[in-house]
Design goal:
This protein is of the alpha+beta class. It has 2 domains: 5-145, no CATH class; 149-213, Orthogonal Bundle (Arc Repressor Mutant, subunit A). The protein has helices at residues 18-25, 55-65, 91-95, 123-132, 149-152, 155-166, 178-185, 189-205, 209-213, and strands at 5-13, 30-39, 43-51, 69-73, 80-85, 99-101, 105-106, 112-119, 136-145. It has a 5-stranded antiparallel β-sheet with strand order 4-5-3-2-7, with helices on one face. A 4-stranded antiparallel β-sheet has the order 6-8-1-9, covered by helices on one side. Helix 7 packs across helix 8. The longest helix has 17 residues, at 189-205. The chain is globular, with a radius of gyration of 18 Å.
Length: 215
């Protein structure tokens, strides 16, 4: 059993964080990051879901006050938007630890919340890395995640997951992108994307819906 894995939820204090300012400016709007990843030395890209908000006003506010943040339509007539942060303060501390980010996460007005799945032995390292980057740890919780990949994944899914981990697809920043990984596995990027989504859903949903997907 993979009993040394834990779900680590961290509430962080990051000065002048755009997420906090955005929620304070639009208190009636809900902002939820549905997924994303770090790339390069400072960048984070992901999907931001906006409920009960006027996108044009939100985009205008971000353009005026946070030039490092870009929002674009992800799908027409949808409340999902592609979000790019070109100056994320979390890239450096998280890139030094082997972990997988867990979603969704709701934006807060007073702190930054992140959820990570990692080996329990890495917890102290990541806390130290955050403090070394002058990021305040306001609160954190650690819950054991007890499951076996052998029990929940099909043979085909294990064939996809193991090389994905080996080649660094789940590291921060990614050591390989989706297209290159698909070439190594000799499948199309679209097929690989579907496989990875199913794998992630099985791992993160099975018996842990409230734990993982509570925001």
């Amino acid at each position: 059993m993979d009993s040394n894995l834990v779900l680590l939820t961290l509430d962080l204090g990051i000065p002048k964080l755009w997420e906090n300012t955005l929620v304070q400016k639009f208190p009636e709007t809900s902002f939820v990051i549905r997924g994303g990843s770090f790339s390069g030395a400072k960048s984070f890209s992901g999907l931001l879901q906006i409920h009960e908000g006027e996108f044009n006003e939100i985009q205008k506010f971000l353009n005026k006050n946070f030039s490092n943040i870009m929002l674009n339509d992800f799908h027409s007539d949808s409340n999902l938007f592609f979000c790019l942060d070109n100056n994320s303060k979390l890239v450096k501390p998280l890139s030094q630890t082997r972990c997988i980010m867990n979603w969704p996460v709701t934006l807060q007005k007073d702190f930054k919340r992140i959820k990570l799945i990692l080996n329990e032995d890495e917890v102290e390292n990541i806390l130290s890395n955050l403090e070394n980057c002058r990021i305040d740890i306001l609160n954190f919780s650690k819950v054991k995640v007890d499951f076996s990949f052998n029990e929940i994944l099909t043979p085909k899914q294990k064939e996809i997951l193991l090389p994905s981990i080996k080649y660094g697809y789940y590291e921060f920043p990614k050591k390989i992108n989706l297209n290159c990984l698909a070439q190594k596995l000799n499948i199309s990027p679209s097929t690989l994307c579907v496989h990875l989504q199913k794998i992630e859903n099985r791992i993160l949903n099975l018996n842990y819906h409230d734990l993982f997907f509570g925001v």
